[in-house]
Specification:
Elements: H1 15-21, E1 35-38, E2 50-55, E3 61-65, E4 68-70, H2 86-108, E5 133-137, H3 144-153, E6 160-165, H4 168-180, E7 187-191, E8 204-210, H5 219-229, E9 230-241, H6 247-259, H7 266-274, E10 279-285, E11 288-293
């Protein structure tokens, strides 16, 4: 009987995104594609909240539970964000969300504005068949992925966000926020290693990252993965913290040493980014550098 009313059901989960994305996923174990999604056939996909993805080649299984796709069963050394122990770890955890708030505030005029993230990408309504596929890195400390999902939802398309993070705790909190904002049908949360993204080449129409490049322990590896998954007409939009001189630079150095975050000068960032991309536009505001690349 439930299927008779399926057309009237407002999607309560992101399971339909998993099905759409399955053929563009690659297995973290053998790097083969595609993966096949299996769920309870008696439950409509709009309300399904669990299932499993199976690699067609090596038969490895990856669970999908409560909005999150787990494609990193065990966290390898150096995965994701820079990490320290004890006080350093707590300091880093406190600094990272603050960095993202300040990046948004410097660019748009206010940290709580609904227009916080227009700098991440432009031309949302690009006419891409099936809607834009936006991949967002280092996502769960702030609402950037949800802001992107909200903008896509307001467009007459079926675009969605694939939000990648290496922390199950942060992803669980992000799922709760998505449900509260009624955006769970526009964003898929993926537990994965940013150095080995479980997507096939050319999957993304947009890749975005807000201050995340300051956090990753292997930036070049992450940039190589961004380059690989970006489509021929895709764009990469990033916001990074750049090194300053004078008193501000001294404070940055203290925070860098305490948190493990990477802070480089403008020329260093340009050299690093231009080694992987063609920089179309960049804008510096205070300690922040915003760049759009292809």
């Amino acid at each position: 009987m439930l299927h008779e009313f399926a057309q009237d059901i407002v999607p309560l989960t992101n399971a339909p995104i998993v099905e759409r994305l399955a053929e563009r996923l690659r297995c973290p174990e053998c790097l083969a594609s595609p993966l096949t999604f299996y769920g309870d056939d008696s439950v409509d996909r709009n309300i399904l909240d669990h299932g499993v993805l199976v690699c067609d080649a090596c038969k490895a299984c990856y669970p999908y539970e409560h909005g999150t796709l787990f494609l990193m069963p065990e966290r390898p050394d150096g995965a994701g964000h820079t990490r320290r122990s004890g006080l350093f770890h707590r300091t880093a955890s406190a600094i990272r969300p603050l960095l993202r708030v300040l990046c948004a505030w410097r660019r748009t005029g206010g940290p709580w504005s609904v227009e916080r993230t227009p700098f991440l990408f432009d031309e949302l309504s690009t006419g891409v068949p099936g809607g834009l596929t936006v991949v967002h890195f280092g996502t769960a400390d702030r609402n950037d992925a949800l802001d992107l999902a909200q903008q896509l939802k307001e467009q007459p398309s079926a675009g969605f966000v694939v939000a990648i993070d290496s922390s199950p705790t942060r992803l669980a909190a992000a799922v709760t926020r998505a449900q509260r904002m009624q955006l769970q049908d526009r964003v898929l949360w993926v537990l994965a290693d940013a150095r080995s993204v479980p997507l096939v080449d050319g999957t993304a129409d947009r890749v975005t990252c807000v201050a995340g490049l300051n956090e990753y322990s292997e930036i070049r590896g992450v940039l190589s993965e961004v380059r690989r998954i970006l489509g021929p007409k895709g764009r990469f939009h990033a916001a990074v913290v750049q090194r300053r001189i004078g008193p501000a630079g001294i404070l940055q150095n203290v925070l860098r040493r305490a948190s493990g975050l990477r802070v480089m000068g403008t020329a260093e960032w340009q050299a690093l980014l231009s080694a992987h991309f063609e920089i179309e536009h960049q804008e510096a505001r205070g300690p922040w550098l915003f760049a759009r690349m292809k």
